Each structure stands twice: as structure tokens, then as C-alpha cells.
Amino acid sequence: MELSAFGAIMKFAMEREEEIAAVMKRIGSVGGESFRKLGERIAADAAKSIKFLERTRREHVNELILEEPTTGLFVDDYLCERPPREQPTPAEAGRYLIDMLDVIIRFYTDAAAKATNPEAARTFNRIAKKKAKLKASLEEYISGLE
Amino acid sequence: MDLKTVRNYINDEWVESKSREMLDITDPATGGVIGRVPLSTAGEVGEAVDAAQEAYWDWRTTPPVTRARYFYKLKEVLEDKFEDIVKVTSIDAGKTLDESRAELRRAIEMVEVVCGIPSLMMGDSLEDVANNIDCVSTRQPLGVFAAITPYNFPTMVPFWFWPFAVACGNTFVVKPSEQDPLTQEIIFELIADEVGFPPGVVNVVNGGKDAVSAITGHPDIKGVSFVGSSNVARIVYKACGETGKRVQCLGGAKNFVVVMPDANLEATVPALVHAAYGCAGQRCLAASEVIAVGDIHKPLRDALLAAAKKIRVGPGTEENIQMGPVISPEHKQRVLSYIDKGVEEGADLILDGRGVKVEGHEGGYFIGPTIFDGVTPGMTIADEEIFGPVLGIMKVGSLDDAIDVIQKNNYGNATCIFTTSGASAREFTYKAECSMMGINIGIAAPMAFFPFGGTKGSFFGDIKAHGREVIDFFTDKKVIITRWI
């Protein structure tokens, strides 16, 4: 399915954030203290991103350019294929989260480039930047395990 | 959504109408009944006006800065319950979720503007207009105002008027459209519960023709704002004139979009498609007729056809739907009869939306995107407002010919031009007789801080909706000349 309407793009982004928060809830306790803290940061960021996306959807829906559709954003390109097993190792959990963040960063980057609304583009870029920092922290954590 | 009977909100109380006449409110996407609306009586309008009159003096003497604070609170409440209101509007009016969001945003923008009422209401002064004599002009509220609003923007249009009037110190009666009154019901529930204007400052009366007549004829109402068809706008204008009221009546439209041979088609087509089919064409700013100048006709026609075919039609409550249904079965029939008329009169129907089916919503009032080519002035579909997802294409030889078509039409609401030539854009905006103009934009909708309204058969009155000058509509300019002895 192509995401062309402004609200559909925002909803998809929020659903991905909810997914990240849900995954963190499930696998956040598999590692030690440092993984748990990292997990809390990721979950808190997802919650904050949802609020930020909600605000953007509320405040920057502009009738003047509302339905000049966005093209080339397809749902299937931004879904994570491989759910983590019930009791993953810390390394597996970390790698899965990195994959999730990778996908969502790619989504936000693509959506920012295609968005007809500049405020929405700013929101996507800002969230993508934060996710990239979290991803770097996770990579550092994984490399410490290996 | 539960089946509910909407109530009147009078003197800070929710009151069930005593009227025996009720209309069903239907979900345009399913045709199912979702509520009932009373056709309130003249007596009930009178009760609302009495409450507003009673509340007037205390409210009028409340400092503007204090009045403004109610609107700061209102903004906060509307932001907080944003998605709740949006969902109701999408069911009530059949709009897509994004369209409902956009109109609520516009309503909030009105509230944001009136938060500046202490500055907006300021008057003027000049010392020494004669020796030792100073002159001050001040704006004073007048009393009770009322608005009669349409179905196509059930959230936004009431906000074009009542926040400005009430912030100025007047009191108010709103009569929302009887076709989709649930949106104002939820908004006023929030206002009653969380904003808490003093009793009688703002009131809602639901109803139809009798309520309109009661408003236009009521001796205690100082002014009326109306948005609807031009036929009814003329009637309201006349009736208000007879009872000495201030009046602003925004009527219908036939909006022409001129596409010049030098237009950037890549940017033009998406804007045009949105302008034609947004809100299923049910807006007074809908692009209903494209005037293609010269050789751009064929590539423009082909691109419009391709884009219109891609529009996803369905229930507005589903995210990613691009066009919802029209408001009622009667309106659907009216639009379909215009399409039939276009065929009869010889226009070339290149995209026919009459048979559109939406799976699972067979009872909905859907019409697919429709395009006529070969439209000429004098055809019914070229001259009259259709208020549905029907776009006509005309071909002319020059910009002058295009402007001539616009000038000869009875309406003068909005028009747009797509061109990369500054000279063409300037000539167009200079000559075309319409009040809202777009250059390389399809929907020329002035925002809250600019005036909204047309000319010719699209507007009856002199002061338009919202913007700085609507403060003049809702206040009297009193001039005080003082000799200091």
C-alpha cells in the first residue's frame, strides 16, 4: 500500500514507534543494567516521538496543500520482517533493535525527502537524527559484548 | 457512535427541543442513521436570544484581556481533544480524516487570532482636532449576533464568526447546519464543560428554515452572518435588511482555474486535483472549471484524467482515503443530475463517477471523480455551481478569453491561475472579478488573519468573514470629541 495522505503517513510513523516501545517492553530485561538503561532510553524516545508526531499532525495539516499527495512511500518497504524470539540473548535483542531503528530511520529520511509539508519534513528529520544516536549507542553496546 | 438527539445549548444549559419535528442525521459513508436533530421553533430561538441579551451587559463590561483568556482556554481544549472532534466530523460530514483535521486547524487559527482582541479592538485618537479639542474613536460591541452556517465545513465556519463577535464583547447564537450538527454538539460540550463562558454568552440552536426566519426577523439580534447557497444568501440578506440588521452573507461559487501554456504541469496537476476533489467538491473554493489556454489543453487534460483516476474514494474515517462521499442522498442526486445535464448538452464525459462502488459501504453517498472536456460557456455545468466532484475543462485561445469567461459568470468567489509568467499573473489578478485569487495554488483560502468572501453573486454585504476588518462588523465605532475646559 502506498502512503500518500498526510494523516496516513503520520499514523504509520506512530504505529512504528508504538511497535518499538512494545518490543522494548518485551525484551528490555534480557541484558544487564546497561542494556536495560539503553532500552529505557529507546522506549522513552518512542513515546516522545509519538507526541511530537501527534503535534505535527495536529498543527501542520494545511488545507492549502493538504491533498497534493506524497508519492513513492510504500508500507512494505518499512516493515521489520524478523521478530525476536521469546527469550533472545542480549546480542540478538540488540541486533534486532538496530534493525528496527535502521528501518525507521530510513522511513523518516525518505518521508522527509518526499513530504509536501516542510514542517512534517522537519519533524521526520529531527526524529531520524535522535534514532541515529540511539542506534549508535546500541552498536557500541553490541560491540562490547563481542 | 451512539444514536443521539442533538440538543440546544442555551444559557449554559443543554436543553431538549420541544419541537415535534425532527430530521435524521445520517453517516454519508453508510447511509445509516446516526442521530436526530430537532427543527427548533421560533420560540426556542427567542429563548436563546433572550439569554444572550441578558448576558450581554456583564460580558460587554468584562475587560477584553479577560475575555481573551477564555479563548486561550478554548484553544487548549480544542488542541487537547483534537482527534476526538476530528473523528466526529468525519462521520458527521463524510470528510476524510485529514480534511476534518484541516478544518479544525482552521477553526483553532480563528481562536488564536481573537486571543489578540485587546490589540484588534483598539481605537484611534488625535489631539487638537481643533484648538484645545481632542478626538478619540473607540470600538464598542453592539449586543446579540447570530450565525447560520452550512454543512460543508461544520467545524470551521461557525468559528469564522462567533469567536470574533464574542471576543469583541457581544453575545451570540449559532445555528449549525441541520445536516451535520454533531460536530458543533461535541465542540460545545467541551466549551460548556471546560471553557465555561458565562451563561448566555454563546448559545446554540439547532433547526432549519423556521429557525433561520426567527433569527433574521428577531428585533434583538443586531447582526447576522450567513454562509450557504446564493439563493438563500439573497433571502437572508433581504430579511436582515428589512429588520435593520448588520449582515454578511457568503453565497455560492463557480471557481475557474486558468492554466496558461507556460504552466509547470508537474506542479499544476496535483494542486488542481486537490482543488477539484477535496471535500468531494463540496466547498465554495472548489475548482470546478479549468480553462486551458492554447496548446496546454491536451497534455493538461491527459494528466488530469490520469491523476483523477488514481483518487481513492471511500469512507473518510479510514486513513489514506482521498475522497469521501457527498453529504446526503438528495445532494448526490442533484450532482448526478448535473452530470446527466452535461452529457445532454454535449460536453464530453471523459471520466464518469456516477457508477462508483465502495465495497462494504453500498448505502453511502459516493460519487467518483468526474471530468467533462469540451465544456463551453452557456452550458449548465459551466455556469452553475455543482458542489460535487465534477470538473469541467474548457479550451480558449488567450488569457483575455479566459478572463472574459470569468467576468461573464454570475459568481465571483475565487479563481486561480497557473503560469510561470509574472506578466500573466499580474494581468489576471488585476482584471478578474473575484475576491480570492490564487497564483500557482488551487485553493485560494484566506487564513484567519485575512478576510474571506467573494463578490458579485457570491457575496451579499460589505464586510467579509474573519480577518482584521470583521472587528468592524462586530463593533460600532464611537467617536468622542472633547474640549478640555
Please give a handful of descriptors for the protein shown.
heterodimer, A: 146 residues, mainly alpha, Ferritin, 4 helices, 0% strand, B: 485 residues, alpha/beta, Aldehyde Dehydrogenase, Chain A, domain 1, Aldehyde Dehydrogenase, Chain A, domain 2, 2 domains, 6-stranded mixed β-sheet, globular
Written description of the protein model:
The complex is a heterodimer of chains A (146) and B (485). In chain A, 70% of the residues lie in helices and 0% in strands. With 146 residues, chain A is an all-alpha fold. Chain A has a single domain (6-145), classed as Ferritin, core subunit, four-helix bundle (Ferritin, Up-down Bundle). In chain A, helix 3 runs antiparallel to helix 4. The N and C termini of chain A lie far apart (39 Å). The mean pLDDT of chain A is 87. Chain B starts with a strand and ends with a strand. In chain B, helix 3 (82-93) packs across helix 4 and helix 10 crosses helix 11 (297-309). Chain B has a seven-stranded mixed sheet, sandwiched between helices. Chain B has a six-stranded mixed sheet with strand order 10-9-8-11-12-22, with helices on both faces. In chain B, strands 1-5-4 form a three-stranded mixed sheet, with no helix packed on it. Chain B folds into two domains: 4-251 and 458-483, 3-Layer(aba) Sandwich (Aldehyde Dehydrogenase, Chain A, domain 1); 255-439, Aldehyde Dehydrogenase, Chain A, domain 2 (3-Layer(aba) Sandwich). The A-B interface holds A 1, 3-8, 11, 54, 57-59, 61-69 and B 79, 82-83, 96-99, 101-103, 105-106, 270-271, 273-274, 277-278, 319-322, 441, 443, 445.
